[in-house]
Amino acid sequence: MSNNFRSILKLTAPLAAAAALIVSAACGDSTAPGNGTLTLQLTDAPFSFDSVARADLWIVRIDAKTASTDSADTEDGKNDDTNGANSNPATGWVTVATPNKAFNLLDLQNGTTTNLGQPTLPTGTYRGFRLILDTDKSSITLKSGKVLTGTSNPGIKFPSAARTGVKIVLDKPIEVTTNGTVMVIDFDLGRSFVMRGNTISQNGLLFKPVIRATARDITGAITGTVRATTATGAGVADATVDVLVNGTAVGDTVSANLIESTKTDASGNFTAAFLPAGIYAVRARPPATATTLKAAILQGIAVTSGTTTSSTTIILP
Q: What distance in Å separates the CA atoms of residue 65 and residue 234, rounded to the nearest whole number?
């Protein structure tokens, strides 16, 4: 069960079984030659846990660098709020946004985004981005009203430190240009918050963040409807829609084959946004309450940069 959360730096997010972030860069008249502004946006994919009302993640700041990074490097200096003193991304981390607030990832679904910031950066190729999170201020609220935190019981098992540096995995390096660049950060909510037992309310969650990012201008989207039994059947609400590697089987559970997930609205409609151009399989899984329906999958769904592949209908037998 995976949900995506997306944000743009500008920040934006689509709803799916994962969560995502979007970052963008644009150029204004006052920008000096050799510089470009980076717009950071945040977005989210649908969160497949039917019992969850809110998923609040406290983002302290977003850092960038031109060199690639690893997990140890991502953690280094996570508590240093004077990180902004460094202005050269070629020599280390530079702070590109400081939202220092909580974002409800469930508000950022189906292509919805929110701005995180729009910094000016030297033009060039950026290979490293990280989020600095404050887990002491992050929480999951269940529909019952129960709030899960790092200290509640049941709760969320976060890393031991209050602050965590999370590496953002790039589909490709991000090119910041004087003409403008938008980066989409995809926070996979469903895979980042893992159930520790049979139910969230009894066993809580384990936090294992999964975040990817891509340049917005090379992405497209898939929209469609999930219906019950026939092409004219009722729309299926709260179905999980997974975008997968083309050729993936309907019952496949290999996480590496999952690109992103989203959730249908009350009418059974869905949007899987910010997908790199390519050919995908699209699978729909009924909610737990629809016990008579089964999962179904479509193969060979093409996505082109800058366009939306629409009228995709998935029929659940």
A: 49
Polymer length in residues for the chain: 317
pLDDT in tens, 72-90: 777 776 766 655 567 788 8
Tell me if 124 sits within 8 A of 176, measured CB to CB. yes
Contact 284, 301 (CB under 8 A): no
CB of 110 within 8 A of CB of 29?
A: no
173 token code pair: 């390096």
CB-count exposure of residue 214 (10 Å: 0-12, 13-18, 19+)? buried
Instruction: Using 70 as the pLDDT threshold, list the residues of the chain that sit under it.
Output: 1-34, 36-50, 71, 77, 79-85
For the full predicted model, state whether its pTM sits above 0.85: no
Q: Which CATH superfamily is domain 220-316 in?
A: Immunoglobulins (2.60.40.10)
Residue ranges covered by each domain of the chain: 4-78+90-219, 220-316
Helix, strand, coil shares of the chain, percent, nearest 5, are 10, 50, 40
Query: DSSP code of 191?
Result: H
Q: Using CA of residue 191, residue 145, residue 107, residue 176, what is the dihedral sign? A: negative
β-pairing verdict for 181-188 and 128-134: unpaired
- Strands 181-188 and 278-285: what pairing? unpaired
Q: 313 and 224 in contact (C-beta within 8 Å)?
A: yes
